[in-house]
């Protein structure tokens, strides 16, 4: 019972931590409409952390074996329930409730979406030898193996993306030199473009107003017959206006590009200033090592694929072996290298999640 | 038409409150059919008759600068946005009636815009915290607009409207609550249209007329 209470306390702690993280970091500037979302996020976070903690306990040998096994089973069931049933269903439900057409029968369409998801989820296991006579078709092993396939693929993708993105972000070698004059010149161009847009819009507004005052109501041609009609009876003024409108659209696109470029320049200038501080120099230094590690990983992965061989030891293990042999320190190589590689890959994945999401939504 | 004088009014607010729909409604008298994310700044022009119906009636251009983004953006985006805050004559603060955080963020928005404009008559702030006295002294006219009024159920309306009344009082400004997808809220002659007209008149006055009534 002592063990039980200790682990449930930890679980509640993780839940609270997930809740706070959601409130403070993820949803800092937005308002939470549905508390269900927050609860599910915190519960998933709590159970994932508990599984991680149980693995660590298993390695270190804390708590007794039967209670660990019990907790493990319990956690596994709950997490599978959440991952396969609740989260996809709620995602479908919220997506559907945002589309106006399907608003009436939210539940029905959410169920349809969930069933589609389950179909593809099940199909995922086809190319893999999962079905074995020992376990039967509706068992936990089926679900776990599929979740495992998705998980490993995601981790590999993130790790690969991170390996390429890390050197680019950390190393100051890639920073272009940006001066204040560059920024000012670009800002001036941006303001000039805005002024041009404004003057053109003024002309359009004045034209609309005079036409309105003269009693000609300027309707945009709507529908099929409207378009046919506008071909034959076109007012000279409206043709001029549509030309100006096209110029305005082009200028607006230009202004958006200029804005993004200016924001980019500001960000680069900040990074340059940051890299001159002590903290910046420290991260730059770390960045070089990290980048070398990433480049080595890419190189080895390419060789493994091209020559179709399985990698025996990774650079961290080799590095530690070399250090141990050179310095003669007593070191449990296997144990530590496993953990250090684990931590390094974890760092790459965590830092690249954000980078990947930003790149995808640019 | 001879070239008219112009005033510049900023439209500020959080992402997704309905600034683009509002500006479109004000300038084109039409509902915006396909709102999309505003990148950078989008400008539109409204022609306004100052002191309509009186002998001193004069027509002005009102430029509505709709600046996109969120108040918690990176510093680089904020510095880029600041380029639009030059020589502004009025600010319309837009918030979403269904989202309390957007109303709270209005304080930060107004400070961001007013801090930038450190003209002789501008507001000087030392520590960035909100202080009601700054707004009492502020020379730039403000207007607070609450959107998505139709999405508030009848039962909650009073509570929401009281809250927004306090908000407008804090800014020493008038307030309008409407739904940007329905032009009848700004129909000619309605109280909202009168408030809007008064606000634009005030902006033009502060820009072009000195206190003793002579033209600059």
From TrEMBL, chain A:
Keyword annotations of the record: Membrane, Transmembrane, Transmembrane helix
Residue span, Golgi pH regulator conserved domain: 139-204
Pfam name, any one: ABA_GPCR
Gene: Gpr89
Protein name: GPHR regulator
GO biological process, one term: intracellular pH reduction
Predominant cellular place of this UniProt entry's protein: membrane
Reaction catalysed by this enzyme: bromide(in) = bromide(out); fluoride(in) = fluoride(out); iodide(out) = iodide(in)
TrEMBL record, chain B:
CDD domains: RabL3
Keywords, in A-Z order: GTP-binding, Nucleotide-binding
SMART domains xref list: RAB
GO MF entries: GTP binding
Transmembrane segments annotated in the record for this chain: none
SUPFAM superfamilies per the UniProt record, alphabetical: P-loop containing nucleoside triphosphate hydrolases (SSF52540)
Domain of life: Eukaryota
PANTHER family to which the protein is assigned, alphabetical: DRAB5-RELATED
Function: Required for KRAS signaling regulation and modulation of cell proliferation. Regulator of KRAS prenylation, and probably prenylation of other small GTPases. Required for lymphocyte development and function. Not required for myeloid cell development.
Protein name listed in UniProt: Rab-like protein 3
